[in-house]
Each structure stands twice: as structure tokens, then as C-alpha cells.
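User: Okay, second chain of the day. Same drill as before: sequence in, C-alpha cells out.
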Amino acid sequence: MNIVTKVLAVLVALEFLYIFYLETIATASSKTSKVFGMTTEELSNKNVNVLFKNQGVYNGLLSVLILLSVFAFASRTALICLMVYIVAVALYGSFTSSPKIILMQGGLAILTLISCIF
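Assistant: Same drill. C-alpha cells below.
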């Protein structure tokens, strides 16, 4: 795995750690409100809050898996699988929620995939 791929993969992992932070730790903050286009009142709703925290844990664990695939296992195949999964989820989000999700959530993953292939 080349250095460009590793750097891009770490950036993807950091992106998902940031999403983890927003969804799990700063769930009802003004920053989370801005990023997700929801009011702080909506984010403070108990059901929404629980859903966000659960989603945040998923994103945090995804970042851990990315870092493990790069550093602990040095597995290009695992990294490609994770990036394909991220892009697929971002595509789904772009169709069901907002078209900008493909670039916001999938952009770095797409670059990482391209780096893995070439």
C-alpha cells in the first residue's frame, strides 16, 4: 500500500471519527445542527438523540476498521472493501437524503479507492 493511499485512508478515518464526535458526543450542538441541517430542538428529541448516538458508534467503529486495515493488517483488499462500502452508503444517502452526501461522505473514499487501484 503506497503512502498516498495510507494518507487518504487516514483522512477518511478522521472524517468518520469527526462524524462519530458530532453524532455521539456533541449530538445536540449547534455544529451538529448545522452539519445535518436540523434544529437543536430536533436533535434534543430523545428518539432522534438515541438514533444519532447509535449511528455515531457505527461511524466510529468504521474509522477503527479503516485504521486497522491500513496499519495493523496492511490489507489493501480490506481497505478496498471498506471504501466500496462507504461509497455505496454515500450513494444511498445521496438518493434518499441529499445529493451532496456523495461528495461529502464519499469523496475521500472515492479518492482512496482510485489510489488503491492505481
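The mean pLDDT is 96.

User: Thanks, on to the next one.
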